[in-house]
């Protein structure tokens, strides 16, 4: 066998060629393999390629030799199947917490997990430019830092901000540092949130990760484990609309029957529901009562009424009346 400068890497280049250039519908012939290796500066004999392919198969690669047309060698299964990669691409490009640039980088990496032919199917899904995306790429590294703190069981310190009309993040509390024990990360309404224990307030709180700045590990042990252990994360995220806080309340909603799916989707299949007359049902839900919860109710129109407790019904009515006031009178602002 003729020797080349990259001869020792021959089997590695062969593996790369098979992964990049083949799938079940696109095999590669022996002649094409030899030509591809030669492009990497490797000259090889057919006999050695047969042996290398057997070695790769013994290593775990699912390589077959197709004898029907088109014939040749191909990798027929991989760690990620194409439908799985499509799901991952969809998740990446729809995630608001990733910038357009970072989304495109991640999608390129996902494309590398399949053949160049199947990668074209993923590329056709790439439409990230006009999606609503975060302007803050540091979230990518914030998530990693929070995971590190959780794994090392230590608190973090950070500054926290809010967006201004000039699209700048203004630090809250005049830039004061927050010291929190991080316990979990959750993805809600396409945003990433850190769930942590605030020692000063002695309660669980949540923070939007893209609004966190200059995160660092303090080295101090985390606190609040017993409080967090009592927290049902599923219920916590269901009752907290858009992760906006508020007082927990059990609220009775009377809904038209066609909204049963909406209630179940929001609060889960375990939500208590019973008939409330012709075409109606009532549901008892536990929520953090906030303007965001009232806004969600308003979006359902007259299909839902708050029927208890009376003070929550009164608060919801006041919320609606305040909105209506902004549209009353000829002199109302039109911006």
Protein architecture, described:
This protein is 38% helix and 26% strand. The protein has 12 helices and 12 strands. The strands form 3 sheets. Strands 3, 4, 5, 6, 7 and 8 form a 6-stranded antiparallel beta sheet that branches. Strands 10-11-9-12 form a 4-stranded antiparallel beta sheet. Strand 5 and strand 6 form a beta hairpin.
Shape: elongated
Helix content: 25-40%
Unreliable residue stretches: none
How many β-strands, per DSSP? 12
Based on helices, strands and strand pairing, what is the structural class?
A: alpha+beta
Fraction in beta strands:
25-35%
**Major beta-sheet overview:** 6 strands, antiparallel
- Measured distance between first and last alpha carbons: 80 Å
SSE layout:
Layout: H1 10-21, H2 30-39, H3 46-59, E1 62-66, E2 72-77, H4 82-94, H5 100-111, H6 116-123, H7 139-152, E3 154-163, E4 169-171, E5 178-188, E6 191-198, E7 203-208, E8 212-221, H8 225-229, H9 233-239, E9 247-256, H10 260-267, E10 273-275, E11 280-289, H11 291-299, E12 304-308, H12 310-325
Antiparallel strand pairs: 1-2, 3-4, 3-5, 3-8, 5-6, 6-7, 9-11, 9-12, 10-11
Q: Which short descriptors sum up this protein?
A:
6-stranded antiparallel sheet; 4-stranded antiparallel sheet
Quick gist of this model?
The protein is α+β, with helices and mostly antiparallel strands. It has helices spanning 10-21, 30-39, 46-59, 82-94, 100-111, 116-123, 139-152, 225-229, 233-239, 260-267, 291-299, 310-325; strands at residues 62-66, 72-77, 154-163, 169-171, 178-188, 191-198, 203-208, 212-221, 247-256, 273-275, 280-289, 304-308.
């Amino acid at each position: 066998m003729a020797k080349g400068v990259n001869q020792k890497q021959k089997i590695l280049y062969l593996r790369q060629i098979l992964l990049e250039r083949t799938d079940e519908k696109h095999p590669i012939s022996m002649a094409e393999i030899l030509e591809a290796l030669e492009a990497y500066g490797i000259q090889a004999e057919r006999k050695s390629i047969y042996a290398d392919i057997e070695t790769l198969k013994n290593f775990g690669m699912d390589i077959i030799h197709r004898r029907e047309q088109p014939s040749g060698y191909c990798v027929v299964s991989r760690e990620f199947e194409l439908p799985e990669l499509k799901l991952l691409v969809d998740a990446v490009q729809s995630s608001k917490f990733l910038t357009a640039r970072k989304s495109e980088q991640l999608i390129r990496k996902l494309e590398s997990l399949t053949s160049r032919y199947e990668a074209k199917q993923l590329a056709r899904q790439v439409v990230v430019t006009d999606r609503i995306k975060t302007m803050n790429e540091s979230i990518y590294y914030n998530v990693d830092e929070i995971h590190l703190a959780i794994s090392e069981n230590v608190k973090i310190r950070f500054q926290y901000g809010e967006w201004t009309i000039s699209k700048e993040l203004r630090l809250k509390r005049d830039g004061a540092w927050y010291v929190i024990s991080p316990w979990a990360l959750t993805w809600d309404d396409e945003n990433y949130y850190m769930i942590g224990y605030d020692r000063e307030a002695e309660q669980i709180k949540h923070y939007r990760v893209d609004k966190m700045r200059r995160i660092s590990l303090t080295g101090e042990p985390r606190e609040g484990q017993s409080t967090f252990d009592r927290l049902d994360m599923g219920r916590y995220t269901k009752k907290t609309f858009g992760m906006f806080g508020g007082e927990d309340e059990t609220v009775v909603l009377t809904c038209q029957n066609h909204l049963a799916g909406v209630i179940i989707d929001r609060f889960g299949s375990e939500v208590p529901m019973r008939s409330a007359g012709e075409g109606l049902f009532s549901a008892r839900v536990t929520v953090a009562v906030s303007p965001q919860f009232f806004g969600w109710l308003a979006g359902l129109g007259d299909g839902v009424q708050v029927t208890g407790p009376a003070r929550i019904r009164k608060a919801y009515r006041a919320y609606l009346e305040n909105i209506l006031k902004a549209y009353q009178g000829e002199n109302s602002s039109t911006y």
